[in-house]
Amino acid sequence: MTDKKNTVTVTDNASGKSYEFPVLGGSIGPKVVDIRSFYADTGMFTYDPGFTSTASCESGLTYIDGFEGVLAHRGYQIGELAEKSNYLEVCYLLLYGELPNKAAMDAFSDSITHHTMVHEQLQYFYRGFRRDAHPMSIMVGVVGALSAFYHDSTDIHDPKQREIAAHRLIAKVPTLAALTYKYSIGQPFVYPRNDLTYAENFLYMTFAVPSEPYEINPVIADAMDKIFILHADHEQNASTSTVRLAGSSQANPFACIASGIASLWGPAHGGANEAVLKMLDQIGSVENVPKFIEKAKDKDDPFRLMGFGHRVYKNYDPRAEVMRKSCHDVLKELDIKDPKLALAMELERIALEDEYFIERKLFPNVDFYSGIILKAIGFPTSMFTVLFALARTVGWISQWKEMIEEPKQKIGRPRQLYTGPELRDYVSMDKR
Ligand code: CMC
Fold this sequence. Notes:
By secondary structure, this protein is mostly helical.
């Protein structure tokens, strides 16, 4: 017999019939109503566009409490990881579930380091793109193209091959991202260096030129590493759900990651960091802030404050706290007195005091600050979302791996509320 306390009863008021559904509990966080038999029992679908109340899967990777501002990977809170860990260790944690001991970390680090080069043939893909192509459009193409290089060696039902695919992605996406940047500015491609850390190697491949030595600034390398940690995973957001949905048909994992990159590109998701800088340009100066705050509040005006608000964080974004500090460190180290920072701080101050933003719990999110740091380091705005994609690759592939390893894994297949015409006869052209 089902324990009545762990069920939910739904009554169809048209027929008066009641149906009982089990309630499932996770380790922490809201419980879920298991409605898998809802259609079979009631003949109806549930309706939840935008998935505001729907858990699409079970996952042990990332926990978010949007009201308390908590983000944790495998139980470890993001602030602590950003302070004490490093990106590769967080990658290990997401992929394997535990923090590594020294031997495991060394082996993982060695494997990632030795997969950083990409097939020489991949360079020719770049030459097919216009130099002014948006870097995200190139990333969708070249990451998807990895499937052409590794399709035969990627049996997704073999755990070893899944692991190699994951390592290849974590290792090669920074190389592809740096090649994308180099191609856009017409500089020679720079090969990876195995003696550098993950973040240092990425900075080197991006900013070094063959004609002179490149010195790595440790403050910048540390900020880069923190940006990667803060973007590593974020539960079932649009791009991760896209990767899971694409992967649920058992498609090639490299192609699935390319689908995640496509989804991330939009300004409502990963494209927001680029949109923040464009918005600051549009606002222009501190005096114009009140006018733009009014525009953001006007429902007839499409303008929104980019870098504000979040679907799940309704108090503050814990990533934004770390990013805010890192932002100040980088600007101080580089001695940059960027008027955009003053503008951003004024915008933050006024918005946080405004009733409209308080009522709707709209706070600066991670992208509000990350754009300013990336600009200070020297990345063009069009590269910002590429860096997000680079960092999120580990989240996508870990979630993909978790899904494939789920024993009862099914292809994702949502239903719909059909609102089109009823069935009708074909009308020949002379009668239309
Ligand atoms: N500026 C002005 N008003 C806003 C904003 C904003 N940035 N965000 C939400 N609102 C208002 C919205 O108009 C609505 O008002 P009302 O209730 O009067 O109709 C209310 O707040 C709720 O907004 P919503 O669109 O229903 O909220 P959502 O959960 O669907 O959207 C969001 C979340 C992130 C898409 C949205 O806040 C937004 O567009 N923000 C700006 C873009 C941005 O910074 N995105 C990056 C998110 S962080 C990176 C990531 O994790 O991907």
